[in-house]
Amino acid sequence: MKYFGNLLTVLTIATLSGLVSAQIKPLDAMLSNYKYPYEVHFLNLKSQDNDLKMAYMDVHPQKPNGKTVMLLHGKNFNGAYWERTAKDLAAKGFRVVIPDQIGFGKSSKPRDYQFSFSQLADNTKAILDELKIDKTIVLGHSMGGMVAARFTLLYPEKVQKLILENPIGLEDYKTFAAYQTIDQAYQSELKNTAETYKNYQLKFYYDNQWKAEYQPWLDLIAGWTLHKDYPQVAWDAALTSDMIYNQPVCYEFKNIKTPTLLIIGTRDRTAIGKDRASKELQPKMGQYQELGKKTQREIAGSKLVEIENVGHLPHIEVYSRFFDAVYDFIQ
């Protein structure tokens, strides 16, 4: 009877996993059949001998206050998850620009591309140049925080204020985790499913507490795994993982002179390569309740807003507290 009970449990889990996958729609590399919350524009970009298209949304307020906010997405996300933030910022008079970085969202997925934070920052600047925006407030989440930091270091004259929401890269992952080749990273990416993505997010983002508002952002990346284009997406994901691992920004925080706000959900435990670190080092990685304070000390004059018992996505998990902190800083 015990055998049949265990078998029933396994079959039930498998059935539920199948139902989860069945509810997710396959998505091609450019998310062609996925509608973003605002009109999508494309910048034709010649970069590294590639003809690329970089997607972005440009949200105009009814009563402009003369300021622009640029929202930069994380690695497992795209510009769509900024919908509510953009709506409320526009209601306050801000113009809002939301790029999809090359390799992400609705932007091109080149195979032969040297991904670097400097290159992504330069691509992002090209959108501002196209829109003739001289200065902007920059808000970056997760990997977008690393892009935002590099953008601010490269183009300080363009950044009025910098906001980092649970950015990764607050520590140097190379000092904890063993290196993996791009080929190894690619093979790992190819194994991703809706279940593996959800389990990762539950463990590192949400502390095993899943809510309905998290599902749309899981569906987007999980939908890729069900489409024949997924190897193309997975290759760029491997390249950008390598970029994050090999190009830390934490040593240069001391060079940021722009007024800066850190919004840190202290329950977050996100850390690149944690599974490749020793058992002794793993618990020391991604300790955001410590990393936020450390980073505030390194960025002169910066402000820290810690949100207790919140994980990697304050703007999804506790939106009102996140937005209040942002607006208080930029109004």
From TrEMBL:
<dbReference type="InterPro" id="IPR000639">
    <property type="entry name" value="Epox_hydrolase-like"/>
</dbReference>
<dbReference type="GO" id="GO:0047372">
    <property type="term" value="F:monoacylglycerol lipase activity"/>
</dbReference>
<feature type="signal peptide">
    <location>
        <begin position="1"/>
        <end position="22"/>
    </location>
</feature>
<dbReference type="GO" id="GO:0046464">
    <property type="term" value="P:acylglycerol catabolic process"/>
</dbReference>
<keyword id="KW-0378">Hydrolase</keyword>
<dbReference type="InterPro" id="IPR000073">
    <property type="entry name" value="AB_hydrolase_1"/>
</dbReference>
<protein>
    <submittedName>
        <fullName>Alpha/beta hydrolase</fullName>
    </submittedName>
</protein>
<keyword id="KW-0732">Signal</keyword>
<dbReference type="GO" id="GO:0016020">
    <property type="term" value="C:membrane"/>
</dbReference>
<dbReference type="InterPro" id="IPR050266">
    <property type="entry name" value="AB_hydrolase_sf"/>
</dbReference>
<dbReference type="Pfam" id="PF00561">
    <property type="entry name" value="Abhydrolase_1"/>
</dbReference>
<dbReference type="InterPro" id="IPR029058">
    <property type="entry name" value="AB_hydrolase_fold"/>
</dbReference>
<feature type="domain" description="AB hydrolase-1">
    <location>
        <begin position="68"/>
        <end position="271"/>
    </location>
</feature>
